[in-house]
Amino acid sequence: MKKSTTGLLIGSALVVGLSGCASSASQSSGQASASSDRSWYQHPAVCGLAGGVIGGSIGYATSSSSDEESGAATGAAAGAAIGGLLCADRTPEPVAPQCPSYGEVPAGVAVDAEGCPLDSDGDGVPDYRDQCPGTPAGVEVNANGCPLDSDNDGVPDYRDQCPNTPAGVEVNALGCPDSVVLEDVNFEFDSAQLTSNAQSVLNGVAERLVSNPDVRVSIEGHTDSRGSDEYNKNLSQERAQSVANYLASRGVEANRMRAVGYGEERPVASNETEEGRFQNRRVELDEWN
């Protein structure tokens, strides 16, 4: 039998076998979850080896006597590549859930353009589970979509001017049991000019008041006993007004605030010591009913 006929017969037989492997591999890819589930003969390396033999046989059979070796080599290389491709694993990559943080979404839930449940207030809790819809942007919430209330006083943290109230203590709309001294809200010596540190403290106060728009507040200024009663009264009024003006500049409506100066009338400590006088020089915040 001639060389070309023999090569072609061997090549044809191997092609039939390789086609069967490739077809079987393709079916397995659609059914299996991973390439490790496939039969050994469906592995791309095995198919590549078979393809190399086929290609080499065909290359040898179709080459002239002078270039049999190069023809066989070229055919083997091409056949190996084609065989490997035919048996390549075509198992589709698993698709990650589009909205993994929401878990299983009940039927009928309104979704957005990407198929995720609507979260109208953007707090990370979808509307169908959100017990506190309309939470302001940036406010930290619990699993039910409600603003955190660390001291459980009924006033959420982002509105609470007294965030560490002891358990069971009744509080007002500011989250405080009573009027609260604005710690570190100080002024330049003998003036109503706020220090830069005081402004920093008041920024947080203003932020919580802006988030609590239904509450009105009384800003109360106090001094120690040095100086005349009239002078202290005027100074305390100016300082209280200075705080109110600053809060207004940070977005708190002016008609929600009143400024009252009590001078030296309501000391909380003895004016006989420096420490006592320091405690008496203060600004307090209270609910204004």
SSE order, as H and E? HHHEHEHEHE
Proportion in β-strands: 5-15%
CATH level 1 name of the largest domain = Alpha Beta
List the domain count as a whole number: 3
Q: Averaged pLDDT, please?
A: 82
At CATH level 3, the topology of the largest domain is 60s Ribosomal Protein L30, Chain: A
What distance separates the N and C termini?
A: 113 Å
Widest sheet, order of strands? 1-4-2-3
Query: Which superfamily, in CATH terms, is the homologous superfamily of the largest domain?
Result: OmpA-like domain
How many whole angstroms does the radius of gyration measure? 41 Å
Assign a percent range to the helix content. Answer: 25-40%
What is the CATH-assigned architecture of the largest domain?
A: 2-Layer Sandwich
Number of strands: 4
Give the number of helices: 6
Which term fits the overall shape? elongated
| Helix/strand structural class | alpha+beta
Describe the largest sheet.
4 strands, mixed
Low-confidence segments: 29-35
InterPro entries: Bact_OuterMem_StrucFunc, OMP_bac, OmpA-like, OMPA-like_CS, OmpA-like_sf, Thrombospondin_3-like_rpt, TSP_type-3_rpt
Keywords: Cell outer membrane, Membrane, Signal
Protein name: Outer membrane porin F
Subcellular location: Cell outer membrane
Supply the key terms.
289 residues, alpha+beta, 60s Ribosomal Protein L30, Chain: A, 3 domains, four-stranded mixed beta sheet, elongated, TSP_type-3_rpt, calcium ion binding, membrane
